Amino acid sequence: MKRGAYDYLMKPCELDLLMEKLIAATDKKRDHESKILEARANLISLRRGD
């Protein structure tokens, strides 16, 4: 589960469970990327003195 795995599913898995896990993983990734963008924007603001 290192290097980017969010969860582990046993095969075969139910489609509803798969969709639930996919949505959770994309939400988690989106939140992480949003935090990175916010941190970069803050760093740029600090460097510019805003």
Highlighted features:
50 residues; mainly alpha
Describe this structure in words.
The protein has 50 residues and is mainly α. 68% of the residues lie in helices and 0% in strands. The chain has one helix at 15-48.
What order do the helices and strands follow? Answer: H
Could you describe the largest sheet, including whether it forms a barrel? none
Helicity range of the residues? 55-70%
Number of helices: 1
Oligomerization status of the protein chains = single chain
Work out the radius of gyration: 17 Å
Strand content: under 5%
In total, how many beta strands?
0
Structural class: mainly alpha
Question: Would you spell out the secondary-structure blueprint of this structure?
Answer:
Elements: H1 15-48
